User: Fold these one by one.
Assistant:
Number 1:
Amino acid sequence: LSPFFRRVASHVLATAAIASTQCQGTIGPLQPGQTAPNHASAPASAVDAAVLPAADSCRGSADVGPAPLRRLTRVEYEHSITQVFGAVGDVSSSLAPDERIDGVFASNRSSSVALVQVRQYLDAAESIASKVDVLALDPCDRSASSDEACAAQFIAHVGRRAYRRPLDPSERDRYLTLYRAELAQDGYESALRLIVQTLLQSPHLLYHLELQDPATAAVGSLARLPACALASRLAYFFWSSAPDDALLDAADSGALDSDAGVLAQAQRMLADARARDGIESFHEQWLGLIKLDGASRDPSLFPEWTPELVTALRDETTRFSDDVIRAQAADYTTLLTASYSFPSGPGLAIRGISSAPSDAKVQLDPMRAVGILTQPAFLAAHSHTNQTSPAIRGRALRERFLCQPMPDPPPTVAAVPPPLAEGLTTRERFAMHRSAGSSCISCHGLIDDLGFALEHFDAIGRYRDQEQGKPIDASGELTDTDVDGPIDGAGSLAARFSSSAQAQHCYATQWFRYAVGRTETDADRCALQTIQNTLSTGGSIRDALFAITASAAFVSAKVEE
Amino acid sequence: MTSAAGKTWSRRSVLASIGASAALAPFIPLLNASGQEATIPRRLILFFTPHGTVWDQWRPTGSGSNFTLSRILAPLASVQKKIVIIDGLGVRADGVGAPHTKGPALLWTASPLLDDGTFARDDCSGGCSFGWNSGPSFDQVLVQRGLGGTPFASYELGVSSGGGAPGAHTIYAGAAKPIPPRQDPVAAWNELFADAMRPPAEASKLQARRKLSLNVLDGELSALESKVARADLAKVQAHRDALQQLSSQLLQPMAACASPTKPDSAQRPADSADAVPWLVDRQIELLVAALSCDLTRIASLQIRLGENDGNPYRFLGVTDEHHITTHDTSPAKQELISKIYTWYAGRFASLLSKLDAIPEGTGSMLDHTLVIWGSELGTGSSHDFSNVPFVVAGGGGFGVNTGQYLQLAAGSTFHNRLIVSAMRYMGASDVNTFGSSDRESGPLPGLGV
């Protein structure tokens, strides 16, 4: 642990007021000053007890933002199915799209499910269940036990993974009844398959259910989540997937009742290969790469644009961010400025190189490769079909990197780029466009210069020195930030962002939104500041992730009626 | 129909008796005057295309029943006597949200977006926050009144539509209850026709398994109702309701029917923009088949989305994005987007022609099906709501005054009137107003229903 994280840990651990929160246990309210119980079974913690808390600025803020019931996103569903039932191929593309809160992060928390969607779940469940090797899911020696005993064990074990907590007797009985009926009809294996098919549609699998018991905690009070609900939050945060058996065991043993125990699991999970899925899911959404789903490019200008190229570019961004966060355990500056990446296949040509060992980290020209900002997938996602868009890119930079929402153009104004014109660069066309309507300056003055800084990269993210035979002008002025000043190209923009507390705080805030599936509220302010400060005082990104999983907004929720 | 033994058969049983081998054949309209139930059903189709139109290319010349189609609507020539072109009908653009965002919801709900912060923006563009729509679309009100038929009370299809925000949705079961349109023709084909084509033994086994499974799920949701926080109860109940509807849909015998050929996804162009024509044509085939097999009586097809549609139409020579191109009012660009709207009209005409090719009663299925084509606003370049292009088709067998160019005084009539007419057409004869934006009452004068 970095010295920095020790400071953060001391803050967040001070809020560690713990009651028994095992899956099957009771829930207690947070009591200031309460200390963590010493579970004998808790894994050894990497947190040094000597640095555990003194003062905590968040103590006493007995509030966190709301936690409405959410349905799994398509990505979460896909990964959960793989986690619980084994890899069965593409299972989520047949589902209706997710809600997108503020247009960035998927979070199905608002609308209720429609008839057509429960049909989609049924179709997906039948298709998946037909492919699952049910006898291998929870092996049972049927020569030593009765079939019914094996089925009961199957329900308990596989059900626990699907429910993400142990089933109570009445819940198990439902599946046992189903098992018996199908056994009589079609035999043992078919009965197990029907159990799987039903678990795949269970509300306990499809929703993030964080049931608290109002009998043991006062309505309106802040209570630590039941341990299994906390395990799920950890799993969906780090893996975008359901908990594994080790995490559920930790929850059952009480290990997650202490913040040290949570941190130990968080560290284990981030070190696990599945953490790549979580990092991918976050960056795909934060950077708006989902805009590349089905994105089209004018084939007369960009014949290279194929589904294979898009996949390669997105994969490159995932590998890069995963390497920064996990392999390098690096900080925000590295994410913004590193000049290496992981181009592959058709993505090599976009980086201007002809070949590279497969899966290799490639050192690129530092004048042309500047961290996440010059990832071709990001640049392409914020372009038009036939040209770049300084406005769209600038807006993405303001909103996604600086957390400064920009207004849509007024209804009477055409939100369109100037048309392509022979002999004119994008910048020249935008300049004419702007001078044509000075009312545009109020917004475009804020966004276009940021976009111009990325003009060395075309609509598929490829470096260029010239456009229309003229040299690229990527200069401009960064304003309305904490690092204002002249910029020229991606490198100087990245340098300013990486030294900007505002940008660092924003990146932490985006992770927070991703973690809790909602936008922050005033009630989250204290917890969020602690997380933000992790990055802006030199901590690594992984330290910030651990700060999130230790925050009150993550480990607790308000007890609702 | 009277069999050799003199027994009267219902349409369902006739279709069921055809069996799987006939169902594997390409779609052949099987229904005709001799194969019907005593009462011909009333049907409704809602058809959506984005970004209004180009008025001077859309507007017919002439008036009343004596009119000449313009360039954009020219593809409708073969069914000119069965359409009503409505000019001058506005949409009251109530509520929060930018024009392309709220327009899709307003179109069939005539109610504004919720102002609940689900999709909050700190900058207050188009309102500080907006949510899903605040009310049901009128087709779903008809469904809730039991006018939708079975097994599918309604059937929503789409092409590259129905994303995760209001600008991509037109159909709502209620406040914050968007109904996502089915995007994949193969999945829709499976849903509509696959079950009916299974051998009886396999079908009954499948049904038994589904019933066992659905019983468990109902038990789980029922138990959850008493455990979740009060604020979350509606979601659990809605899920349980949906499963119960699904259960009754799945567990009733499915009529076998001459299905269209199963769409071959290998034929689908890889590029999403280039795939649009293939998708639209497949969805239209499925829509017509679902209605002609009487699997549903209320349906919708949403092509693309109201939110700034970035789709190019390269197969028409439009390499730039649709939304962007609408905002360039130069003649050259308006000519380009006129090609898009003409293509939409061609697809609409193909839907109408297919319906018209199926004999029913003394006319065709089109004569008994009310089809309404609308958009989320009137003109892409100005975001104008005061005149939105509507074309109504069919329903002549039930009193719609088709074959006319219906010109309304600009700015005085709103589309709530058209919705009331459509609801009355479908049997909701007591309806006088619809949607929270309605400030008048009664049906649309001149439409005949």
Number 2:
Amino acid sequence: MLLRSLLFIGLQSFAVLMALLHEYLGVATDEAKYLLDIPYPHPPLIRWILGLSDGWQYQELFWRIVFSSLLMHCIWLVWDMGRVLTREQRVTLCGLWLFSGAFLLQAGTVMMAPVTAVQALCLCWMLTRPDMLERWSAWLGVLWLSMLFTAYQGILFMPLVFVALQKAHLPSWQRWLAFFIPLGLLGLYTLTNPLAIASMGLAGSMGVGIPLAESLTRVVRIWMLGGGLALGILGCIGMIRSRNTPLIFAFVLLVTYVFLSFRNYYAILFIPLLIAGLSGIHGRSLLRSSAFVLALQIVVGIWVFLSIPFPERSGARDVGAALRSANVGGTVLIAGSFGHEWQYELPGPVRRYRPELLQESDAVVCLQPCGDLGAELWIRLADASEEIWLRK
Amino acid sequence: MTIEMMHPHNRLWAVFWVSCALIAAALVPRAWALRLLYTDADTRQRTRLAMEIVAKREGWILSDVQLREVRWSGLRIIHRQHTRGMDPETCYNFGFTDLVLRPCDS
């Protein structure tokens, strides 16, 4: 009991530390999109929940801690999934979850991919518990619906959901409806949000025109980022040796998805599948040298964490602070290219700069030259990190 | 209500089906209001063009504009400025020919 309590405190401290690191780095454009409930590209469930708290000063830190804690405490599920392994191998399995490069890079971010990874791990865990699956199959339906309405990538795990529903011993009509109705609802939601369709088209065409070899290299890189060297390889071997068809099918879907839209943050989606591949009976032989495997995972994970640069901090937070200290609360015009983090950090509504809109605004931020604003009406804020003009 | 229905497991299935029904009830009218976008290529093209022109003219960020209704003659949109706290939100109608914004309640 004492050991569990200490472990819990340790994990929670790690979660808070990761959240604080990302808080220091500032809000990324995608994170701001979710925190403000901006309606694209993903379905609304989680971003709507996040958006309810966007007036709260500590919203960002709070959700970073929540997301990071969810990822950390998944090791309790990982521990349970490794029931057929020895104690040492189960510890290794938990270590493989905690020290994969993607985990270290993404714990503490407010993104949808880590949430989907947690949901996918829950799904993989449910599949290892047929007794519970039979008794509490409704949770499977709820999880499937929530996965799809969290992010589109939830659809990649449909082979696992399909098999889990088969194992739940439900009447056949209920199995089929529970599987297809959420998919239909997602399709219907997509029709109501043309912006989501447009952004999916953009994301899906990322790989167009890129040589095959380069695309494959990127896929391998993201897979390695997800699993690290040890989990990436052993997880796949375990998956194949166990002939776990739904797991392999979900893995192939994920690889195809990453091939079409290679973003580093999809790496975390590999981890639950790889853990599931390694947690079965074949994990016993694959994790024979478990201490070496864990050591390798930790070294590679930390190396990835240190070698992949975090995105550069945007000037939005400093500009927001400068505008607040100047008591600006009205519309701010921004000249030049900017991300959603500017909407998050600035004290008032943001619009794109156009000279005709000057009358309706209180401040102008010039990320590119604004031209002459008129010295009789506008005064430049001194000592600001960006060029900021305030209405006199 | 039968004893079987009162079992927590069945109640959770009921929550699932009711959630699905509520989501469908919320989405069907919205999808129906946008049907021209998917059934008429010309309207789709005019909508895209009109949204881009209006957003550029008003300095709006495109993701702040939600399409609510597509008609043969024009569009109904909601401009929601995403900020911390309450988001200022205004509903507008405009025609494809003049692109003049008219508040929905006028």
Number 3:
Amino acid sequence: VRLELYLNGDLVEAEIAPDTLLLDFVRGLGLTGTKEGCGVGVCGACTVLIGSRPVSSCIQLAACADGAEVWTVEGLAEREPALARAFVEEEALQCGICTPGQLVAAGAYLRQDLPADEESIREYMSGNLCRCTGYGTIVAAVRRTLGGSV
Amino acid sequence: MGRVDAVDKVAGRALYTADVVLPQVCHAVLVRGTEPRAGILNIDSQEARAMPGVLGVFTASDFPARLFGRRVRDVPTLARGQVRFIGERVAAVVAETREQAERAAARVQVDYEPMEAVIDAERAMNPGAPAVHDSPWEYPGAVVAPGSHNLQAAVEHGSAGAAESALAGAAHLVDAVYTTPSGHQGYIEPQAVLADVDADGRIHVWMANKSPYALRAQLATGLELDPSGIEVHPVAVGGDFGGKGSPMDAPLCIELARALGRPVKVVLRYGEDLVAANPRHPARIRVRLGCDSEGRLLGLAVDSLLDGGAYAGFKPIPTVVPHGVEEPGQSYRIPAVYTLSRVAYTNTVPRGHMRAPGGPQAVFAFESALDELAARAGLTPLEIRRRNLLRSGQPDPYGVTRLEARGLETLEAAMASYVPLPAPAGTRHGMGVALYDRATPSGGTSLRLLPLEDGAIQVDVPFPEQGSGVHTVVREGLARELGLAVDRIRIHQVSTAELPHDDGVGGSRVTASMSNAIGRAAAAWRKRDDDGPVLVVTERTEAPAISSYCVQVVQVAVDPETGQVRVLEVLSAVDVAEVINPRAHQMQLEGGAAMGYGFACLEDLQVSEGQVWAASLSEFRLPAAADVPRFRTVLLPGARGVGVLNVKPAGELTNVTTAAAVANAVAAAVGVRVRDLPITAERVFSGLGQQAPS
């Protein structure tokens, strides 16, 4: 099928197999920041934005994003420099494999006018597993970007 | 400056194995065994070979019979004649794309002749049970005697006679069996490897593996090559926790690359990783512990039986036992001990190392038993520990004398910070304590310092950044020693062709190992007499026993109607020397506690009938941000550390104690002793039902 979408702000046109996953589509374009973890939509390592909605790209057909605005970590880190800076400064990462997904999910959170308290952030970010950090610094990075006290 | 690796990782630029693309790369997918034990009668790949994009279907008969492993070499490249667990590699399908290879792999027909399988460790020890391997003592590196039955390893410590007579004279005695399930390391990056053979026959490997030099040695030994013929290239490693130190699929990937003359990549789907990689050993641990009428420990006898699965090759240490189980009670004075630790071969997924291998299992058993003994002796859990913890200068029951023994101080520091939290209405509050320490050796490594044009120093390092912060430690440590700003030090991971040697990360030793190497490197740099590079190589040292103590105080709220356990807080007190990067140190401790919480309350691969049933991350549940309890950390400074940085290990502490502390807290809350992990509502509920009505 023919696919047209805005990827990190740029128009991308492609001819793809109908069963191509969005994850494989963006990775195939060299955007390997989006990672495959669990493959079943649980761990969040493959999170991208479709519009303002975070989705697990490992269980999303690329064709379903036709006409949409898709953001991956590569674009989002540039679009949300304060968030990216907060992740660096709070050292909100260790092995880094979940970090792109965490950043994208956090980017969605910022744009949704949700409360900045710790419990709300933890609830929202629970679709993004991290095995290294215990989550404290990730929550702190999001709160810092939202202007909350850390 | 923060972490060396942060900016690239946050921008999505860090390259992991699955992200590395070579020209002409093709993809291999495995056909996996569906029987716990069966003869392979026939493999029909005709239909698969005709599928689009398929470059070949390979079975064991296509390659020389070679064996691989970290210590014992008993793991074949592909199953030969027989499968020994559900999920074993039987054939490999290579295609232009991974999806093509997956579709074709589903069309490979394997005919099996099922054989009687041994699916649990206790049965494996029965002399009448079938042998998983005919003569496992003949495998290279084997540590068992000829004639042994289904044993990967067996280690004894102490004296059985002395322990028995001490227990016979005890005023109070506990005799209980504790079990822990199989669990997966839970790294989010599945196992992955990319191999290429260049025109000179030289092998290039990119792999999700924490120890490139150890991997090179394992591959060279198995392939009967000189290590210089193999180059392991730097990549980021997406979580390890002990699970990424084996050759895994690399030997197969290399054989495929040789056969096809093209680079070949194997990236596991996560479900395959859960079912067929190298998860943690499940354990059945019988503890007999006795004390006198004053609560002084007199004797300890521990019988630990671990399920090692179908192959022993995933354990690196010389005894081939996850060493944490060997020395239970090592933080206490116990005059007479006897421990027997056995690892069984079974027809289940081979087991490997996971963060403080053996420690979480043994400490759950021992620290639970200690609380049970305290209750019998009429002492509080704190008092029995105060009376029996090692003091500096005293040898532990296994003959090790630590440079310092700060268990008591760490316990008091934890309790000084303890503040009871309110339990929700209708629940009962409980507090539980557990303690752990382990002496840790430091390893050898090599570093090269090169002057750069702008006056900065490039530091070539041989090890990957698997998340522990090791690259950052090198940068901060060298900057400190040389009196430079951290931005004047640039860390650069190089391939195994570039530096002489590295013992690899693991055993919590990395910061301590770096402390030795950084001291030597800084001294050599200051003394250099030209502008050339400076190379330092350090060896593994038999340094004095440095141990870090961890005391955890856990608070739970238990619903007496349903048995549901909510962990309100995990307070960790840790004894430290210098802390190089306080945030990274804190994260290691909190991440460990989160993993400890998962081990205590959630994680179980549900292995039965020889099969891993929790075959996806929706069934094998890892703690999420909203699941984890509140973590608090208390550092007890002032300890004596290792090397020029004066540091102590931190990576394998807080994950070890949590399960025992939760079990002890649940017992305190509702009087139910859970001896089987994970501590689920069902188990607590069942215990509540057995209580006499009050």
Number 4:
Amino acid sequence: VRLTYPTALVLHALLQGYHHGFDIMDATGLPSGTVYPILRRLDAEGCVRSQWERDGEARKEQRPPRRYYELTSHGRRIAAEAAGRYRALQDVDRAPERAGKTS
Amino acid sequence: MSPVTHHRLAHALVNSVARLVPPPQRHAWRQEWHGELASLDRLPVPMRRPVRRALGAFADAFWLRQRSIADFAWIDDVRMGMRQLVQHSSFAVSAIAILSLGLAATITMFSVTDQVLLRALPYRDADRIVTVWETRAPSDEPLEVSPGNLIDWRERSKSFDFLAGVEPWAFDVVGDPRPEVWFAAKVTAGFFETFGVTPLLGRFFTPDEYRKGKDQVVVIGESFWRKRFAADPAIVGHVVRTDNGPITIVGVVPAAFEPRLLPTGSGYRDVWQPKAFESYEPNSRGGGYWAAVGRLRAGVTLQSAAAEMSAVSQQLAHEYPRSNQKTGARVMPLREFLVGNVRLAVLLLAGAVLLVLIIACVNVANLLLARGSARDREIAVRVALGARRSRIIQQLLLESALIAGAGAIAACVLSSAALAAVVRLGPPTVPWLETLHLDARAAAFAALMTVAVALAAGALPAYRVARAGLVNAGRNTTTSDASQHRLRAVLVISEVALALILVTGAGLLIRSFVRLLNVDPGFQRDRVLVTQVFAWDYNPTPQHLKTFFDTTIDRLRALPAVQDVGIVTAMPFIESNINIQGAFSIVGRPEVPEQEARRTHFNVATPGYFTAMRIPLKAGRFLDDRDGPDSARVAVISESMARRYWPADDDPIGDRITFRFSGSQKEVEVVGVVAALRHETLGGAARDEMFIPFAQNPSGSMTFVIRSAGDASALLEPTRSAIWAINPSQTIYRAATLDELVQNTVSPRRFALAIVVGFAAVALLLAVAGVYGVLTAIMTSRMREVGLRVALGANRWDIVRLVVGRGLLLTALGLVVGLGGALSVGQLLQRFLFGVTPADPLTTMSAAGVMLLAALAACYAPARRAACSDPIAVLRTE
């Protein structure tokens, strides 16, 4: 896995429980044009897996379902490694809690 | 703009960007972005910023697109390569055929090398197993070991855990309805232990069984057990009745145990009996008939064992100067003994194969170049459209890899057929040849060679085309044509040069073989049946023997189609058990010191032997019916013996010779000189030999020689019946036609010759195909020039001369380049030549002549096409 700083940020956000593309974007402050390719790459490298949000969830809010990303065990290891490498990641923790922590 | 408009704009953006996403992912991608955008509703308006967020979809879509192209580019390349090959199927077929020939030859030789030369011996710590042989100074040629020396070696040497001997042996099994011969081997203690084998069934021999009287036990081989006893599980303890009394089978040894220490002339020996030494054997040091095999003690090197054995030999030379003065010992690793004499042949063939493969690669490179020039335009267009150079090279290499891959698959099929042919036709003297097959290692090797060949054949054209494509994009390609023709000419010249080496080598071997077959062995080998018997057992006295053979000969002579019948003790080209050499004196000549004693082979024969063999008489008379038991003792000598011991002006006829034979002193008068016979190989020297009449010296180990008016092998059954009519228990050892026996001795040579000639033919064909290809290409690109010439009044003959001259020039240049190699290839082949000097100018010139003729034939089609072209049509098309 190529661990650039933005990649580390995305991993950290996933670790912190942000699971959707735009949520990660808001949590990390990275533009969507950066976040998405990173998610695609992490997906291809087996660090994250993605699935569709359950239908009921979305219907309740009367919107189309969202794609849901989560770390694989491999991804969690990489994320931990990234956290060790980039101390500044702790800033992300302090970023204001946004909505969208779906379960 | 209202937030709603922002939202609509964002969704529209996503929809239009979606077109960039590869179709398989497009739907899901769009859904994901719409889903995210829709979820923004939860956020306060200033934080939504849908358009800004949607702009990221561009990057996302591009990323996915890029990636899918990277993923699938090579599949496109493969598809395109396949399409190219199918579209140009004649090119593809010829390239694949050429490569499959080259690769098949290479894979076959790899299998032979791997499975014969490098094969792991199926014994524990096989590299510690050595064979030990006697040598006779000044030569270090390994000779069989005499029992006396073997016994002393065993007692005095300390280098071995075990040192054992093995001796050829045979016994008659009294069978039903006919007696049967078991070819066996007698082994001393430690034999099986040396190899570290364990019995499949039963046991090996106990120390007690190596003593006289207790030795009536045998161990049989697994294949003999399966064939002869149908794998009877209760075989241990089985008793067979033999001419020497009952013998018990005590064990079965696994099939993998094939020590192959004894000559294979009589077939593989699969019965092992313990050796109990005869009382005279510890003192018998004159002639050897043992093979010795030992296991080196841990920590003992081959060198130190050899040093010890030579020290022991010196002691023995000191103690027994009469017999051992010049006797040494040679320690040779078992593998060396088994494959040492085929190694050179296999390595040479591997070299020949490499040449063929190189020529095949050059040829395919040549074809690819020709294809490349036809594709210059296509590549120029691709370059102009922005294709990267690496991408084009990759594409071209992939195409050559596809060709090589297809060639490799065809080659594996060809090669397994070739291996089957080797198994069937290969000489029986090469160990393990019969188990050859295409195995996983050969397949791995084939894969490796395929990659190498793809790179070798594809690299040059790929480089050239990629470069030319860049330089000449869109430009006139005349200059690249010229440089390409130069390049292809160089390739063809090198092909011709390499092929000349192979053709010369094949020529030398063919000439040697013809010389060998034309050697006069001193007898006529066609239409003769040879049948060996040992008649001692049932005919204990000379009188019995004489009666048995006289009546059998009479009976055989009465058979229809039989012209002459004779018997002899030492028959040429068949392993004869009675082959006696000894010293003799000529009465009236001064005695000579023992070391320089006159020596000759003694042979016993009936008068019929000379007529049946059609041996020419050189002086005096043959043995005949006058030479009965009570008449004067006479002998006939061979011409080479006469030449050696009687100077030119001295006639041996009438001289008297004395010698010891069958334990008594004999004196005979020389009554005739006959042509000298070759006994073991056609290439060897004719033998010094003295024939004495059977009537005066009856013997039991005789070979019938029966000349037929027609097919000799048809006499085999009548001969057996005739012998069994006299004595139904008489065992018949070996029977074969004389022609077969002689042919067997040249079969390894014939086999190697066939292979080399095959390789040379392939090389010649490929080289000529190269000449043809280049000429065709040159002529195609010079059609305009030819048309002009014809239009300006050149006649067709000039055009033909132009083309043929060009072709012959290329060939001649190749021949000059290859001359050095062709003249030195004889040095490598020296050991396989007979009657031909290694640097034989005649052979080299003939090979060059053959290649020139072939090249001339290759010029024909292009020359004809050029000469017959219509100048107007050619000029118009430009």
